[in-house]
Amino acid sequence: MRVDLDHLPDTQQAELARVRDTLMAEFAQAISTSTQPWKKFGKILKIILFGSYARSDWVDEPENGYQSDFDLLVIVSHEDLTDIAGYWYIAEDKILHDPAVQRPVNIIVHTLDEVNKALQRGEYFWVDIVRDGVVLYELPQHPLATPKPLTAADALAMAQEYFDRWLPSVDAFVRGSNYARNDGDLNKAAFDLHQAAERLYICFLLVRTLYFPRSHNIKFLRSLSEDQEPRLVEAWPRATRLDRRRFELLKRAYVEARYSPSYEIGIDDLDALAESVRRLRDVVEQLCRERLAKLRAAASH
Length: 301
What we know:
Structural class: alpha+beta
Number of strands: 6
Number of helices: 11
Low-confidence stretches: none
Strand content: 5-15%
Shape: globular
Largest sheet: 4 strands, mixed
Distance between the termini: 31 Å
Radius of gyration: 20 Å
Order of helices and strands: HHEHEEEHEHHEHHHHH
């Protein structure tokens, strides 16, 4: 795995150094008052850049509403340290509001055991990270496992199971959103659309990579998915401020549409989001079927 960032401009290198340092400082603060040994002596074992900025195919067009995210894998010493709310929320918030970091940052947090077991199973997402990733920090003597090849037949069985489970679950939420809209409960309709979009990205990621992050943040799920497949971009208009505001309304709906009295969404916004979710469903189904056909062909040889 690479350790240099020479393929990136100086600006992005400086931003990644700042993000790394913030993650490490805030993690140290989060465990500083602990008494339990696993927490008091908890460690960040590795921070790895993956995705488009690791591969050199990033997009940086914020004026057009499209900018690739920094995607980071943080590997820690104990499973309880993977809790985003408990150990990483403050760091994420600081990074989000840091004027020196000019692009979105996503983190996933796993233990070394989780990552190595996934590598030994040959899961594509993790194999790609080992192949393309760039190490920003690592503690010595905590190696990643050597990836083992996953047979096409096994990959097909896993991907088909994920597809059969997740895609049908989307339609119930789309129907629920329509019912709520017609009853005048626009907040409930927005929440159901959020759930439909979330499940569509989960379905795509599982079929394509056999992995999805433990997150309800559809902007993060969208970023990971579009990093895998640019055809997903067409589902969401993003060129105008109105387009971006509407997606933000959908992102916020997971919590605020249920619990915040200040959350409001208009019928025009809701209908535009519903149309985007319908487009997303069509694209996800097509991409998943293409992937399954490719795996089926490989498994037949």
